[in-house]
Structures are given as C-alpha cells and as structure tokens.
C-alpha cells in the first residue's frame, strides 16, 4: 500500500513573494470538519493519497454566466457588443430550466467548489440556479441580472421591475438559510443600466451587506460608449453609484487607467481575470502583474460563454498564456508561473470574493473545500516516466489541463464528487 497520510500542498503567496509550503495532516482536516455541522466525517476521514495524487484547495470561479453555458465554444466571430446581441441575449432569454439545473453539477465536476454566477434577467431561472447549487452542495454567489437599457425588446425590464424583482430574489435566497449560497447584486454593466438604478442597487447592497458583481473595461468599443454615455471614467461611474466596495468583483478590467486602478484599490474592490474569454472574444490582454503590483485583489473567471470552457484548470493555463504573450511585447516582464495562477485559482479567488476567511487554502478554521487530483486517474491520457514530486504533479495538472484528473471534490468537508 503506497498510501500517504500526510500531504504536502505547495501554495505560493504572491503578495509576499514567499513560498509557503503547507503540511496538511488528516487530523487537521477532521478538526476543521467537526466545526461544521452538516459534515459527514466519513467523507474526509478516509482520505489516503497515493504517490500520483495531490490534495489541493477547491477551485474558485469568480465570474461565470450560468445561462450562457450551452454557447461554450460557439460564436467567437464577433466582438463583445455584437456577440451579446447576436448570440448571448438570445440564449439567456430562452435557456430551458432543466439546463440551468445542470450547470452547478457540471462546474463541480470541473473542480469548481465556489462559483460566482451571473444568472439571467429572470427571477425564475436565477432561483433555479440557487436551488441547483444547494442541491449539488456547491458554494455559490448567485445574482439576478439587472438590465434596463441597450437590450432586446423581449429581454429587458423597467427600473421598477428590476429593483422589486431583485429585492424579492435577495429575500427568497436568504430565506433558504443555506450557509453556502448567497445572493449577489448583479448590474450587468454600465451600458445596461442608468445611474439612478445603479445607485439604488448600491444602496441595496449596503443595506443587506451583499456582494456586488459587474463588468468593467473589457472591450474598446464598450469603453467608448461608456465614455459617451456618462462623460466620466468607467470606474468612476460605478463609484458614483457606490458599487465599488470591498465585496465587489469586477470582471475583466483590461483597459483600466492607472487612476481607475488606484480607485479600485482604494475601495478594496477586486478583478475577475478572464483570460480565455478575453482571447475568444478578442477583447485584449489583461496584465495581472500590473493589477497586483498596484494592490488589486485578483481571481480567475471562466466567463462562460465568453470563455470557451467551464474549467478553471483550463483558465489557469489561459492565464499563463496571456501573461507570456504580454512578456513578448514588454521588456523585462516577468510572466506569471504555474504557482501564480494556482494562487489566482484558489486563495486569490477567495480574496477577490471577500471569502478568504472561509476558503482558499487549508488554514485552520477555514471550511474544507478541496480536490483530490490524481495524475494517474483512469481515463486520463497523462503519461509519467519518472516519479513526480507534489509540486511537479501540480505543475503537470495545470499545464496538461485535463479535468479527468480531478478524482474527488469536497465542499465544506462533504464529498460532492
Ligand atoms: N463577457 C461578457 N461581457 C459582458 N458585458 C456585459 N454582459 C456581458 C456578458 O454576458 N459577457
């Protein structure tokens, strides 16, 4: 029996630049697990790793549109604003209920233990997503989108409808009293709403202490339209509406100016870096190093279906590629390495969602969200010649990007795959 009971999990702190190697023993996991009522201890008690397996913190998707899932891999012949009109709104408004139920199951299978979801404009389908996350045991922030302008006639709401429906959604999600699933305020982007409604949503978030998510500075045509509409920088638009808070996550942020980055840092707001989407929609290259150097908290987002895959493993590889591509054009640029993107996908994501007290790594007192990755899993095409250390197994997992290597998934100590 080649089982190991003590597991070494490499984890890198980008903010300090100091490598922390966390030695995680089974006893620690069980101690954490016992703090949480709904845990069946049997789920974590029997974790025994072989030499081709590692235990890593659960992966965190800080930006994904659940009702766009069926369009993954389709429709990348148009830039953002045309893509929204031509493919995205049409799908979001007709997505069948049964599909939405499957989305949280699918992302869990890809190792996403925490998802920050955009739902649709509709209360019903957004609530189905809430029920699905609860049913499947996924940790999730879920938002009903607000969209009152620049939208199709049959997929739009009035500001009054938008506000009252959002209030009902928040109340009903909170009434479920599920520890893992919370509502999040979700104004689509500055072009989809006017200032008054955005300010009301900012007020609502403050009143209920809620998270906020939206998009920012993703595409050059979008930037121009925001500038024409509001006559102020993009980040200032959200700031005026009190939407920039320490619990706000902004997707993309490719074209933020230095002043906007500084404002975002001042507000404690974070960025969801969505490199696969930025490539598929040809939006641009987001410089994570620049954001982090300024002090912005950054996590990773698949941005399904701007992104072609629901896999955060593939998104880690896309983040590596984007960073290397930036290094080709910038002298002395240090591209991200696999440890950096691992951080973005775990503790970085937790920080970006202001959940770092609960998840992101195996620090004592946090919930046990974890994956067992088996680089020799049945059905996986990975090949080994030599023995690999845990760090090498992690590196191979990230670069190889095959989700078949995810053997088990735990959320709050409970086995969900
Ligand atoms: N990538 C992306 N950007 C957006 N901006 C406004 N809506 C969207 C969306 O659905 N996806």
From TrEMBL:
Pathway(s) annotated for this protein in UniProt: Purine metabolism; guanine degradation; xanthine from guanine: step 1/1
**Enzyme class at the top of the EC tree:** hydrolase
User: Known EC number(s)?
Assistant: 3.5.4.3
Q: Where is the Amidohydrolase-related domain?
A: 54-416
Please share the entry's free-text remark on the cofactor: Binds 1 zinc ion per subunit.
UniProt xrefs under Gene3D superfamilies: Metal-dependent hydrolases, Urease, subunit C, domain 1
What is one Pfam family matched by this protein? Answer: Amidohydro_1
Q: What is this protein called?
A: Guanine deaminase
């Amino acid at each position: 029996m080649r089982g190991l009971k003590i597991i070494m999990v490499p984890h890198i702190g980008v903010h300090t630049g100091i490598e922390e190697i966390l030695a995680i023993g089974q006893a620690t996991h069980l101690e954490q697990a016992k703090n949480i009522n709904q845990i069946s201890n049997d789920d974590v008690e029997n974790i025994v790793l072989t030499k081709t397996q590692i235990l890593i913190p659960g992966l965190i998707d800080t930006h994904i549109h659940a009702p766009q899932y069926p369009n993954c891999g389709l429709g990348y012949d148009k830039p953002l604003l045309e893509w929204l009109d031509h493919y995205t709104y049409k799908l979001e408004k007709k997505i069948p209920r049964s599909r939405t139920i499957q989305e949280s199951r699918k992302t869990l299978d890809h190792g996403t233990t925490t998802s920050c979801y955009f739902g649709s404009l509709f209360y019903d389908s957004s609530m189905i997503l809430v029920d699905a996350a609860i049913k499947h045991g996924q940790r999730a922030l879920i938002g009903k989108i607000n969209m009152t302008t620049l939208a199709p006639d049959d997929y739009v709401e009035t500001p009054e409808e938008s506000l009252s429906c959002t209030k009902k959604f928040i109340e009903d999600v909170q009434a479920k009293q599920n520890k893992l699933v919370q509502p999040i305020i979700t104004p689509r982007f500055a072009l989809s709403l006017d200032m008054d409604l955005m300010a009301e949503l900012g007020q609502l978030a403050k009143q209920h202490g809620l998270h906020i998510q939206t998009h920012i500075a993703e595409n050059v045509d979008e930037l121009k339209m925001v500038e024409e509409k509001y006559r102020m920088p993009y980040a200032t638009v959200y700031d005026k509406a009190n939407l920039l808070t320490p619990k706000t996550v902004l997707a993309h942020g490719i074209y933020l100016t230095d002043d906007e980055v500084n404002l975002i840092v001042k507000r404690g707001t974070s960025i969801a870096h969505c490199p696969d989407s930025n490539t598929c929609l040809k939006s641009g290259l987001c410089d994570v190093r620049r954001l982090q150097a300024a002090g912005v908290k950054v996590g990773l987002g698949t941005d399904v279906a701007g992104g072609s895959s629901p896999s955060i493993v593939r998104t880690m590889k896309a983040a590596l590629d984007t960073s290397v591509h930036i290094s080709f054009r910038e002298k002395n640029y240090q591209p991200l390495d696999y440890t950096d993107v691992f951080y973005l996908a775990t503790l970085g994501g937790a920080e970006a969602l202001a959940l770092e007290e609960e998840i992101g790594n195996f620090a004592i007192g946090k919930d046990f969200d974890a994956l067992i990755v088996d680089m020799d899993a049945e059905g996986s095409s990975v090949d080994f010649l030599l023995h690999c250390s845990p760090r090498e197994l992690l590196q191979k997992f990230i670069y190889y990007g095959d989700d078949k290597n995810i053997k088990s998934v735990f959320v709050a100590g409970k086995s969900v795959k």
